[in-house]
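Hi D.,

Good news: the full-assembly prediction came through. Inputs first.
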Amino acid sequence: MTSRRMAGWQGEPVRFRFDGRDYEGVRGDTLASALLANGVRTVAASPALGRPRGIYAAWTEEPNALVRYGVEPMAQATTLDLTEGLDATSLRGRGRLSEEPDTSRYDAVHAHCDVLVVGAGPAGLAAAAAAAGTGARVIIADDRPVAGGSLPDTAETVGGVPGDEWAATTLAELGGRPDVRVLSRTSVFGYYDDNYLVAVERRGADAYSRERVWRIRARQVVLATGAHERPIAFAGNDRPGVMLAGSARAYANRHGVLPGARAVVFTTNDSAYAAARDLAAAGVEIAAIVDTRDTAGHAQDGTEVLTGHVVTAVGGDEGVSSVTVSGAGHVDREIEADLLLVSGGWNPLVHLFSQAGGELRHDDATGSFVPGPVRQAVEVAGAARGVFTLAGCLEDGAAAGARAAEAAGFRMGDAFRIPETPAEEPAEPAAHLWLVEAADYATHFVDLQRDVTVADVMKATGAGLRSVEHVKRYTTAGTAHDQGKLSGVLTSAVVGHALGLPLADLGTTTFRAPYVPVGFSTLAGRDRGALHDPVRTTSLHEWHVAYGAPFENVGQWKRPWYYPRAGEDMEAAVLRECHAVRTSVGAMDASTLGKIDVQGPDAAEFLDRLYTNMMSTLKVGAIRYGVMCRPDGMVFDDGTVIRLADDRFLVTTTTGNAAAVLDWMEEWLQTEWPHLRVYCTSVTEHWATVALAGPGSRDVLAGLAPGLAVDAASFPFMTWRDTEVAGLAARVCRISFSGELAYEINVNAWDGLALWEAVMGTGTVTPYGTETMHVLRAEKGYPIVGQDTDGTVTPADLGMDWVVSKKKPDFIGKRSFARADTSRPDRKHLVGLLPADPGRLLPEGAHLVETGTLPEPPVPTLGHVTSSYRSAVLGSTFALALVSGGRDRMGEELYVPLGDELVPVTVTSHILYDPEGARRDG
Amino acid sequence: MLLIPCPWCGPRDEAEFHYGGQAHVAYPENPAALSDEEWARYLFFRDNPEGRFAERWNHTAGCRRWFNAVRNTATNEIEAREVIA
Amino acid sequence: MTKDFPDHPDWLWSSPEPRRSYDVVIVGGGGHGLATAYYLAKNHGITDVAVLERGWLAGGNMARNTTIIRSNYLWDESAGIYEHALKLWEGLEDDLGYPILFSQRGVLNLAHSLQDVRESVRRVHANRLNGVDAEWLTPEEVKEVCPIVDVSPDVRYPVLGATYQPRAGIAKHDYVAWGFARAAAAMGVHLIENCEVTGVEVAGGRVQAVQTTRGRIAAGTVALAAAGHSSVVAATAGVELPVQTHPLQALVSELLEPVHPTVVMSNAVHVYVSQAHKGELVMGAGIDPYNSYRRRGAFHIIEQQMSAALELFPIFARAHVLRTWAGIVDVTPDASPVVGTTPVDGLLVNCGWGTGGFKATPGVGWCYAHTIAHGEPHPLNAPFSLERFTTGALVDEHGAAAVAH
Amino acid sequence: MAERLSPPARFTPVSSDDLRIAEVPFLTQINLRVDPKSRAAADIGLALGAPLPTDPGTCTSAQADVLWMGPDEWLVVGERGDDPEGTIRAAAGTAHVGITDVSAQRTVISVDGPRSRDLLAHGCALDLHPRVFGPGRCAQTMLARALVVLAATGEEGFRVFVRSSFAGYLADWLLDAAGEYLRKGTVTSR
Ligand SMILES: Cc1cc2nc3c(=O)[nH]c(=O)nc-3n(C[C@H](O)[C@H](O)[C@H](O)COP(=O)(O)OP(=O)(O)OC[C@H]3O[C@@H](n4cnc5c(N)ncnc54)[C@H](O)[C@@H]3O)c2cc1C
Ligand SMILES: NC(=O)c1ccc[n+]([C@@H]2O[C@H](COP(=O)([O-])OP(=O)(O)OC[C@H]3O[C@@H](n4cnc5c(N)ncnc54)[C@H](O)[C@@H]3O)[C@@H](O)[C@H]2O)c1
Ligand SMILES: Cc1cc2nc3c(=O)[nH]c(=O)nc-3n(C[C@H](O)[C@H](O)[C@H](O)COP(=O)(O)O)c2cc1C
Ligand SMILES: [Zn+2]
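Then the structure:
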């Protein structure tokens, strides 16, 4: 294939493959420029119609040239750096996810600045330089690998040197300042409230992180994002060889690539004349400039200009071979060409501005939407607000940068001197043409990537749709990978044409983040695998791991579930652990329970208001179980309350609710009862807690704490003592969650492992996990908040009237107990269930029905099984359940439908073991 | 990511705060004296305007203080804030 | 345009000038408003109806939702109305004569903790009693239904199993709205766009008319179906609703070759995802915690969403987020809707569907039309009255931790 | 008696020319709550050698480091074995104060070196620019997904106070993020 690289263009060769064929490009190429250099014209088949498609643009606005390579499912050839060995395959609209894992690393960084400049073209560079000169902290971000924005595309000179050179020098100078950060290859893709912007930096496969998300909080923002050239809808405008004029110019100037040999230029404005000049200089033959206006721009001598003409047809199946042009009063002419360059004018890149909440305004002069009013602290400069001259962009950028710095509180420092630029020719006003009218619109494409034609748009308007949002959804125009960067406004214009409404009235569809597609893993960043969500561990964790405990996730905590011995499954291990506690002694790591230190003269009063029962009557040295409700009367949390002193309590909460209960307390204290003199402090992790349970626990404790009188009279149930255990300062509480004689030993978390090892060192204590704890408490009918309750359960439902004070005038939740629904007799009560077959384990979550045969659905349910276990001590399985009117059903037989079976169960008290409480004293 | 002005710590990212809904909804003086309707109103009914809204925030990841703010729910702009004393 | 789709009809609806008076004015031209109008005309012969929409028809949450349709809710009351809806979905394409691409590809709700497992099994058993198809799947079975879910034990929150509703699935949201709109318009209902209701006129405890940006329109019955804006409209009639408005975000990837055969939801890891008909991954993100009427959420919620998605679906690593957006949803204290009468005669309310009302569209349209026609609720929406907040008889899909989408 | 163990004991200190990360375990930490305008506050300040800092986000350093945690809350940090609690209690007398030993509630990770700010910026949304968060500043905030107290101890040094149950997570996170800055002259030691 012929090389279309400009003679004399230097570059280190890079080999690559495309669709199974080998090619060579040069370093600095994109895949697109390299393909064009190799004369490859057709790079994709269109998604729905299968029409051949070529490269249409030169940067992120490209609609056609989508490829996949390696693990990357979809990328634009126009933004893809050519790297040695790149092996890319063209796509037909849809990407393919790879089964290969993505082994790259991703991360994020927070950044702050006084002025964020987006875009490092002439406007952005001038803005950044002006702002940085004042001493403001500046970040300048640009999505391209090379500085200068469109300067390398246009090869204009700035300050007497080539634009790209000027840009590189300016950016390097900026980067050398201590308070300026230059981010290249960085796309700002989202603009959120309070000047929070997010950007993705493409750092490359060799960097520590392949891509990085920048989370930028800027006091002021300057958007200098440039403009996109506008396409025109005409018959056959999707043929390979049709290309935006400015993009062709970019391929020539940036990459030394000629996208064709002989070109027709179709334009509504002057900018394409400059493109034609550059391409001619590079060696492309300009067959004609077809200008829709009646007055020509400044064409190079000898170039034919057809004013008042439009393109009405494109010849060639696989790519442009000729272009038919028509003009009023002229005969149609077919001009031979392999390249058709299009310029319908320029659309300021208002995406980020619009995301910022800025309103767009239609500008009749440029025929485009430009920034209007906005509430955030943002300036728009250069082509992004419709300034289309180089000198104008430099000036506009410098002024915007200075204003932004000043608004951020920085006075003029070293002023930025606007560099000289060559005098520009006075421009002829542009015409605004979106659509070349025709009888048949079947090949007038508005969205190349979704194969949407003018005919499709007209079908939509014909069906009654009048909003561009409807047309977008009916036709799918603007919804593809390129998000309608080129097709969006064009679609609106065509709708306007069809309905006879001005474009200004129709507006655009909504601009949304991300401005360019961003990888899932890029956004996930470091929060993956083990770092996905913090793992919380107790100070005994390593021991549990060493003893082979599987862990249960409880919130973010890892809790040991059970400790299987060789050959044991879970059931065997749990039965053994239960047996040990009921007959001997076991120990559990209870450190995850929430612990809150509540101090102050009004602490007792405060707890009286939060708990359903009375806490102020608790004696120093004693412990009381308590329940908290939400104002709606439903159980929120439970735990023990220890009175440490007249004005000091230690409250324990469930593992999952520790933070919520502390927040709850602070909320009431700060917002309702600020006069109460109370301070609450979390001490959850200050303490390690070892629960010692079983008839043998007293002896074990006595052995470890020789200074402590452990007999029942000296150390009664529901009291606590400060003492030394295993030589460690400890607080021992005599409480029980198993019904057995039991103690909870609390030590400073640093000493937790030492305590645990001392306990285990006695040789008589069996470690047990959360599962055994659950079985033991269930045998005693102690509910677990969140398991036996679900946010719809009151203390009375749990059979805990005794925990609800009748004496207190009020506490949180009390009023709700008097509502109609909360006093219904058929509310669901917590009861016990004994299956008729003592070997039958009911699944937790199973439901209960009244009859032994199941009627047709819907079958009213009486309630459900909340907890269900095998019990060694009961010699049977058993369950806890919430059952409608359950307390009035003692002894009744109910049924649990399981598959085709109805399993009979008997309703019993929820306290199945030792209802007299005979065991708690040992 | 809103930038929420904690009266104590200064502006911080939204992720550090817990939202507390409408401000100035006092716990009733004497709940027992309320009708079911009035109690339901306290429990479940809160203003939900499109526009200025007085609301509560807690700086949970910072100083743990509750404060009130007036935010425009149509623009998310915070117009004022006050310390709860 | 993408040709692997059924063609749209050549006519959808016309844009009549509003008349000065209608028997029934429906405020809000989302899925619910349109379905209500359709069933009013079809089931009850009431066609002097206007649906007033402040923007473009069905451009609210109807245009923004992740289209998950299922009926496997926990409580009998919820199962009743959602299952009614699901049955209607099963015949809707024929009923409307419009391709709505209803695809019963099944929904998996994953469990990641023992507590999740209990709640899931509870829901499966409740569903079966209610005649809702429901299964409990082991991790291996999850893998069979959806091979790309990572069910290995070494993720942060391993999959311990899932509930599965085979009849659940997705539909093409816009087509559903347009199908209802077209069928209602064909029976004479007026669909009026760019017509914002700015006030509800009440006299003597009875509704009289609505004030709109296109003038006053008298009405015998005013039926609200304004989703996130319900409180704002109801307040003009002096009616307070137990609703708070929040942004809820969603996102799509580029079009991909088929990889994801079903719908996967995970409450604990905060993911819900399906692959829509064209091939884009459609993913719901979290709800923003504060009240807001901005149809845009905060970006960190999307970032968390991606981290969660990759925990469950490592294969999505290199997919790209193409577009993010938000709707504004109306959330009630018990995460269940409010459908029924208000203290104002002739003013009816349908709101509070929060993050999960798309799936109810035909069901609620059916019941709400009944409520409008008879002045009292259909048995299926009777439990969802405003009074439940006074009696305390909530339908607490929140408390019971059932997922709301 | 077994040796004291700090939870993230498996965390191996690392250092390079650019960055040093190590645990500083077993510091004495007291949570202090008192009305800043009260006599007790003044007395406690006197006893600790410096008035309690009342400027949000600042800390003082005399007999102990005193970190501002909230308008009526401070974290008093002493060296291993110090007894600031005794000092504070004695100074407060019978006034209404909240004094809670939280020594083991959090452990401390020190992050030092020219790239310390860059490292923290990966997970901390605060502006850590030396002009904004220099020596003498502290803040309660988020680092990655953990709640921390962050204190600037020098021009390029920080202490990160993290709840001990999160310490393992945070250590893993820090080491992963630090990889980039540990390439020059890295030493890992126990
Ligand atoms: C991101 C997201 C994902 C979701 N995912 C799911 C899902 O997977 N499954 C599911 O079942 N549900 C889902 N939902 C919820 C579902 O979209 C809504 O519950 C449902 O669409 C609400 O009913 P609607 O369609 O009538 O609402 P909408 O479409 O919002 O209709 C309300 C209409 O009222 C109009 N309106 C408001 N005020 C006025 C006024 N004053 N005058 C005139 N018109 C007015 C609005 O413009 C709007 O068009 C999701 C929602 C969101 C935002
Ligand atoms: N003759 C004409 O009609 C015409 C029309 C348009 C532009 N121009 C010329 O183009 C130049 C415009 O200068 P300018 O500085 O305004 O724009 P520019 O196009 O030179 O630079 C904008 C830069 O911002 C980058 N960018 C855009 N969006 C971004 C994002 N979200 N994140 C990061 N980077 C992003 C672009 O890739 C580009 O590098 C001037 O020289 C002007 O004369 C001429
Ligand atoms: C199920 C579903 C699928 C969607 N698929 C796409 C898509 O493929 N491409 C796209 O750009 N947008 C897609 N969208 C998003 C819409 O473009 C748009 O963002 C959404 O309707 C909200 O409207 P708004 O962004 O205009 O406010 C999809 C939306 C939904 C609900
Ligand atoms: Zn604060």
